[in-house]
Prior knowledge:
Layout: E1 12-14, H1 21-28, H2 38-46, E2 49-53, E3 58-60, E4 68-74, E5 77-82, E6 88-94, E7 99-100, H3 102-107, E8 114-117, E9 121-127, H4 128-137, H5 139-168
Antiparallel strand pairs: 1-2, 2-9, 3-8, 4-7, 4-9, 5-6, 5-8
Amino acid sequence: xxxxxxxxxxxxxxxxxxxxxxxxxxxxxxxxxxxxxxxxxxxxxxxxxxxxxxxxxxxxxxxxxxxxxxxxxxxxxxxxxxxxxxxxxxxxxxxxxxxxxxxxxxxxxxxxxxxxxxxxxxxxxxxxxxxxxxxxxxxxxxxxxxxxxxxxxxxxxxxxxxxxxxxxxxxxxxxxxxxxxxxx
Length: 184
């Protein structure tokens, strides 16, 4: 069964039939859902869509419009970016409990990378529209979710800073400067 809509949907869709205790326990253990009250978690889970992908399937593609984020329930995925030469550059691996796509919910920009399933994968998708509905229904829980997302983004930024420092160690030239500076 293929989803229809904008942007083009990929993967098999399985409607949520309520939240099982196992799913709730799994989600509470992820950085994204940590600290949510039971009722707030139930509401958010009811808004999520289960998506299944076969090995080799592209979940999201760099440059396409993005309106949702995903939590990995099972499987492994690879994150890639296109280099200047047009070659795919491996950025990271995603495993159960990881999430991706959250940047499009915060900055409303196109996808920054391509994510490909390396094995059969089950994801839970949360759309921007559902997150807005969540905001209107439970603003305190929404703020906690956004804090959790921001904490994870900060952890990723620190890891990126460390990777850049390792790559440029021993060179006399500083890493290429971006237009926006950040200081930890």
